[in-house]
Specification:
With 106 residues, this protein is an alpha/beta fold. It has 2 domains: 49 residues; 57 residues, no CATH class. It is 38% helix and 17% strand. It contains 4 helices and 5 strands; from the N terminus they run ααββαββαβ. The chain has a 3-stranded parallel sheet, with no helix packed on it. A two-stranded parallel ribbon has the order 2-4. It is globular and about 50 Å long.
Length: 106
């Protein structure tokens, strides 16, 4: 079983909430909420541990990455590895962009 530090989860959740608030037009400031919120506002996304998953497409004659594949991933997945020549459906591409999942082709 993989373990994730609670600090990383809090930081990830805080950043997502802030991103959603800002996209809704809400002004977000740290105020006196404390260092944790200020750090989350300024955190470097690369400092959050993310999970890399290899998607097995060995049973496909022509591999196709679908939204089902993406929706089955662990919520902390930040990168997936797929075989060269894999077709990515528009919905899968949209979800990977929204979830900020990097796609590596091998």
């Amino acid at each position: 079983m993989n373990e994730v530090a609670i600090e990383n989860i809090i930081q990830l959740v805080t950043q997502e909430v802030i991103k959603q608030l800002k996209s809704s037009g809400v002004t977000v400031t740290a105020g006196q909420a404390g260092a944790a919120v200020a750090n989350a506002l300024n955190a470097d996304q690369s400092s959050i541990q993310s999970k890399t998953e290899r998607i097995d497409m060995s049973k496909f004659k022509t591999p196709v990455l679908t939204e089902k594949h993406i929706n089955r991933l662990h919520e902390l997945t930040g990168k997936i590895i797929i075989p060269r020549g894999t077709v990515i459906t528009p919905k899968a591409r949209e979800i990977t962009k929204r979830k900020q999942i990097f796609i590596e082709i091998e």
